[in-house]
Amino acid sequence: MTRIETVRLRAVLDSRGNKTVEADVLTESGGFGRAAAPSGASTGEYEAIELPVNEAIAAAREHAVPRLDGRVYAGDQREVDDTLRAADGTEDFSEIGANSAVAISMAAAKAGADVLGAPLYQHLGGAFRGENFPIPLGNVVGGGEHAQEATAIQEFLSAPVGAPSVKDAVFANAQVHGEIGSLLEERGTPAAKGDEGAWAPPVSDAEAFEIVEEAVETVSDDVGFDIKFGLDLAAAEVFEDGEYVFGDEVRSTEEQIEYVAGLVDEYDLAYVEDPLDEDAYEAFAELTERVGDQTLICGDDLFVTNTERLQEGIDVDAANSILIKPNQIGTLSDAFDAIELATRNGYETVVSHRSGETEDATIAHLAVATDAPFIKTGTVQGERTAKLNELIRIADEAL
Ligand SMILES: C=C(OP(=O)(O)O)C(=O)O
Ligand SMILES: [Mg+2]
């Protein structure tokens, strides 16, 4: 049986060198699951609360663990996650921390899968899961909150939309990353890397567009399938007193809509995340009305994986896509609910990492389990390749 015997919590390192929560779930029959919480830097105002790690662990040990040990089945994800919510008692996990909650939720899912002898994506997706694989959106150039002295736009994302397989797509993104490294070297532009492993060169956004466009064209020609690119503008981070301040460029809301619509046309962008502020439902709707049939307009800080905020967006046609980050909302069940609501309403889902990550690969399984058309989980660097390589293994049935 999958009844939880013990939940263990500890602090481990994330990719930024910060502490994060890791959970082990052991079941009475010897099942085992381990998972760690990721952590954002450009966090949305409406996200569930990440507590300081020692506080989150102490609070979860006091309030959640006694309700789980010996009482709840790890294989019953809803029961695990309802128990976490009941133990917390707040809307936003401010008592036990969304970092403790999501680590326990994901570890329980893995323990449930272990007892069943099934891969995690199979346990989460069930027998009638579809057979699609997500297209990986790979961060290749970036700045914003993820790197100093780099682009004002947070992420330029390679989007290998024509790749014949997930493996081809993953390798193509890495090739685009490598090509950009060569282009920067040719230009004599020194470039560090940002938190997610993307190049973080000291260039303007306009220059970055030219470099990324050239790289995706070169690699697309080489591999023989279509590669586009997209953006995460993370606009809420630069919205100040009613204006969008991207480096030296300051724009009103109408100007920002005009600017982004122009970029979609000029670069045939496949994907545009958070082009406007996290409260700007109407402005989002205006942009979606203009270019939503040409590209994905995706809400990250806008929706924060929260069904209530997503429903508000659906009501006004604010976007046509949602980013899914389990730690934004606190449990896998909540993330599933957001995916289901999105899918029912014709929104595309993009399962996503955070800028602070660990080797945990749960999101690769979540994307496959839910038939998500996209996954955003970086391009290179160990904590990113952990998810990408897991996707390749899933496709290869090699788990
Ligand atoms: C992954 C992102 O960054 P962070 O985790 O810093 O929110 C994002 O904004 O989509
Ligand atoms: Mg984002």
UniProtKB/TrEMBL annotation:
Its EC number is 4.2.1.11. SMART domains: Enolase_C, Enolase_N. Residues 4-124 form the Enolase N-terminal domain. The active site is at E196, K325. Catalyzes the reversible conversion of 2-phosphoglycerate (2-PG) into phosphoenolpyruvate (PEP). It is essential for the degradation of carbohydrates via glycolysis. Keywords: Cytoplasm, Glycolysis, Lyase, Magnesium, Metal-binding, Secreted. Its cofactor is Mg(2+). This is Enolase.
